[in-house]
Write a structure and sequence with these properties.
The chain has nine helices and no strands. It has 229 residues and is mainly α. Helix 2 crosses helix 5, helix 5 packs antiparallel against helix 7 and helix 6 packs antiparallel against helix 7. The radius of gyration is 20 Å and the shape is elongated.
Length: 229
């Protein structure tokens, strides 16, 4: 039977893959290809760098898959603390975010199709196709903003499980719960007060590092082995 320390490090490694892959489509691809407020330039960039944009789609598919394995690895580690909370963690942090990622890929696929301008879309003028491509890219962004609700909610059961466990530091559990509140604030800000989203994100940045701290602790320190039965 695998030790708690080994289970913790496996979960930490999978979490690291998630942390490394997540920003590819969220940050890197937009920084390279998207031109704010210019649908034509953005569509031209996507068409000219199709392989890079497709890599972003694949990265989203990878993230949508790996979140399931991260949640299951953490379930294996923490189910002994409270199985019901651990199941809730898997649903909120694995199943639902994964579904959002896979559905959101369709927005990027539509944007790519419009940017490439295949023959069956010839009934649309290029400016129309470019505008529609930008629309689908914006929908992808809105899908991510909606997903932040689950990115926040799953940290509550995870934080409580971490706090209650006797093999992980309690401060990490508190930090994860604070991180969860920060994600919820970001999500609602994105929909209700979108112009302030970047400002709020900068203010909340320290709180948003809770997951990184948790991942690094699992990866480097593992978990304290429990003695006795």
């Amino acid at each position: 039977m695998a030790s708690i320390k080994k289970n913790a490090r496996v979960a930490g490694f999978l979490y690291l893959l998630l942390v490394l892959a997540g920003p590819i489509r969220l940050i890197y691809i937009p920084s390279k290809l998207f031109v704010h407020g210019n649908a034509t330039a953005t569509a031209n960039n996507i068409a000219a760098h199709e392989s890079l944009f497709r890599f972003g789609i694949v990265s989203d598919l990878f993230v949508g898959t790996i979140v399931i394995f991260v949640a299951l690895a953490l379930y294996r580690l923490l189910k002994g603390v409270d199985q019901r909370l651990a199941v809730l963690m898997v649903i909120l942090g694995g199943v639902l975010p994964s579904a959002i990622y896979f559905l959101n890929v369709l927005n990027d696929a539509a944007a790519l199709t419009l940017a490439r301008g295949p023959d069956f879309l010839s009934v649309f003028e290029k400016p129309q196709r470019d505008a529609l491509a930008m629309l689908f890219l914006n929908l992808h962004g809105q899908g991510f903003t909606a997903g932040e609700i689950f990115y926040g909610l799953w940290l509550f059961p995870l934080g409580v499980l971490t706090f209650r466990s006797r093999f992980l530091p309690r401060f990490l559990g508190v930090w994860l719960i604070i991180n969860g509140f920060a994600y919820l604030v970001l999500s609602f800000t994105g929909f209700l007060l979108s112009r302030y989203e970047d400002v709020v994100s900068n203010i909340l940045f320290p709180a948003l590092t809770g997951e990184i701290a948790f991942m690094l602790w699992l990866l480097i320190m593992g978990a304290k082995e429990q003695s006795g039965g």
